[in-house]
Each structure stands twice: as structure tokens, then as C-alpha cells.
Amino acid sequence: MKITFIGGGNMAQAIIGGLKAGGFDAAGIGVVEPVPEQRARLASQFGVKACATPVEAAPLGDVVVMAVKPQQMHDAAASVVPHLGRDTLVLSIAAGIRIGDLARWLGGHALIARCMPNTPALIGAGMTAACATPAVSAAQRANVDRVLGAMGKSIWVDSEALLDPVTAISGSGPAYVFYFIEALEAAARELGLAPADARLLALETFLGAAKLASGSPDDPATLRTKVTSKGGTTEAALASMEASGVKAAISRATQAANARSIELGDLLGKD
Ligand SMILES: NC(=O)c1ccc[n+]([C@@H]2O[C@H](COP(=O)([O-])OP(=O)(O)OC[C@H]3O[C@@H](n4cnc5c(N)ncnc54)[C@H](OP(=O)(O)O)[C@@H]3O)[C@@H](O)[C@H]2O)c1
């Protein structure tokens, strides 16, 4: 498989790093990146061919990964159109850009997959959901799996409309987790703990609990019940959270994110 990245920024570098760590040959990777310093870095750090324009990178190969900012996507798509092979799969990692809009900007190209990664992808611990047009073959989906695997875990969803909820859960989710960690840390300080200890206690609790839940056959509700003894401290805290409507607030927050994701998709596809 030959892959060409359009845009050689943070995400492209994370994917290239992950691919190389998984044994992918750098000779099979090209990058189109307008910034000379970035090109030099891509070449020296990863040994990939980095070009300023798609014409220099052509032929673009089996998979073209569109890794530019959403606002740059229309121009970037227009620049690759003359160089797309009939069997080239275009994979977009841009938040909010719908397949129909990208297909239009690509002059009607039908082989498109779209995914929504999240920030932990930058350290190989991402969670990505992807969808593809019906024209995309099983072998091409396997190629997409290989690219997404370089960022962490990934799933396929059947309908593109589900990428809005995905954005609301795992896309924006790391920020919710940072918010919870922040709140727990602040609470620890209010209870008299030293700042460094408060940070460590909050962070490690999230990390440890997430690892425990991820490796356990029990679902999170069962794990919670197991650590909640009758009349104990955890029960007191959870009862207070229930009374404050924390679960309902999380549900409302994700609904707000979902609605905003739909709005942004409409806006980004306007031109
Ligand atoms: N970072 C995340 O955690 C995350 C999570 C989910 C989704 N995403 C998506 O990933 C995409 C890339 O994000 P990023 O953080 O990697 O962005 P980035 O660091 O800004 O990288 C994009 C690169 O593409 C270059 N570029 C701009 N126009 C181009 C063109 N026409 N042809 C080729 N290259 C072009 C940019 O150059 P200039 O600097 O000159 O503009 C920049 O170097 C975004 O669409 C974002 O929505 C990111």
C-alpha cells in the first residue's frame, strides 16, 4: 500500500509515527505539506518523501489521507483532483467535513472514507470512528484500518450521521475528562491536600480506574457497585452526585456537542 498525506501537521505526523512503529515502510509514504520547515522535519524524522505540491507527490497511491484543517479542506481537495487514480481511496480525518461535500470538492470522486479521531491519537491512544461510501471495498476498508490503527483503537459506524454523536462522545470527550480531573484536583485542594498531591491523586485515579474498567469483564456500573459499600464514603459521594443531577448534566452536555457538530457540518459544507 502507498499512502500520501495531504497536510503534514500534528495528526499526519502522529499517524506516520504509528505506521512506522508498526513496521510500515517509509518508502510507501508521501506527504504534501506547504511549510518548508515541516517538510524538512518529516523527511529527517520519518524518512518520508515530503513535497510542496500534489504534482510532485504523484502518483498519490492507494490511500490519500486528507489531514488538513477543516477550513483548508476545500482548497486541499481541489489541489489533489487532477492526481487521483480511479481506485484511490480518499480518507478524511477532518472534523465536521461531510462525505458529500468532500466528494463534490473532489469532482465527484466516489471512494471516500471519513473518520473522527481524538486528541490521544497524538500519543497512539486515540479512539476513532469511521464510515465509508458503499463503493469502498473490503480491501480498502482494511487499508483504512491499518491507517487508523496507527492512532490507537478504531470502529466502523454504518451511517455517517453517527459521526456527530461520535464527535460528542469521543471527539470532544478528552476535554470532558480533563474537566473532571480538574474538578477532582480542585476538590482535593479544598479538602486540604497539597497542590502536587492533589494533581497526582486526581490524575492517577482516572488513569487507574480507566485501566481497571477497560481490562475488566464487569461493566462500569458493576464495578461502581462493587466499590460502593452500604453506608460508606463512596455511597455518600455518589448519592450527592445523583442529587445534583451530574448524570443528566453529562447527557445534556453531549446533546449540546452533538447539535453543534451538526451545525458545524452545515457551515463547513457551505462553499
Ligand atoms: N488534533 C487532533 O487531536 C484532532 C482530532 C480529531 C480530528 N482532527 C483533525 O485532523 C485534521 C488535521 O489536524 P492537525 O492538528 O494535524 O492540523 P495541522 O497541524 O494544522 O496540520 C495541517 C497541515 O496541513 C497544511 N496544509 C494546509 N493547506 C494545505 C494544502 N492545501 N495542501 C497540503 N497541506 C496543507 C498546513 O499548513 P499551514 O500551517 O500552512 O496551514 C498544516 O501544516 C484537522 O482537520 C482536524 O479536524 C484532529
Q: What does this molecule look like?
A:
The structure is a single chain. The protein is α/β, with parallel strands linked by helices. The protein has 2 domains: 3-158, NAD(P)-binding Rossmann-like Domain (Rossmann fold); 171-265, ProC C-terminal domain-like (ProC C-terminal domain-like fold, Orthogonal Bundle), CATH 1.10.3730.10. It contains 12 helices and 8 strands. It has helices at residues 10-21, 36-46, 54-57, 73-80, 99-105, 138-149, 163-171, 173-190, 195-215, 220-226, 233-244, 246-268; strands at 3-6, 29-32, 49-51, 63-66, 89-92, 112-116, 126-132, 152-156. It has an 8-stranded mixed sheet, with helices on both faces. Helix 6 (138-149) links the parallel strand 7 (126-132) and strand 8. Helix 8 crosses helix 9 (195-215). The chain is elongated and about 70 Å long. The protein starts with a strand and ends with a helix. The site of NADP nicotinamide-adenine-dinucleotide phosphate has 28 residues, from helix 1 and helix 4.
Shape estimate: elongated
Small molecules held by this entry: NADP nicotinamide-adenine-dinucleotide phosphate
Taking the sheet with the most strands, its summary is: 8 strands, mixed
Structural class: alpha/beta
Report the C-alpha radius of gyration, rounded: 22 Å
Comma- or semicolon-separated keywords:
single chain, 271 residues, alpha/beta, Rossmann fold, ProC C-terminal domain-like fold, 2 domains, 8-stranded mixed β-sheet, 12 helices, 53% helix, binds NADP nicotinamide-adenine-dinucleotide phosphate
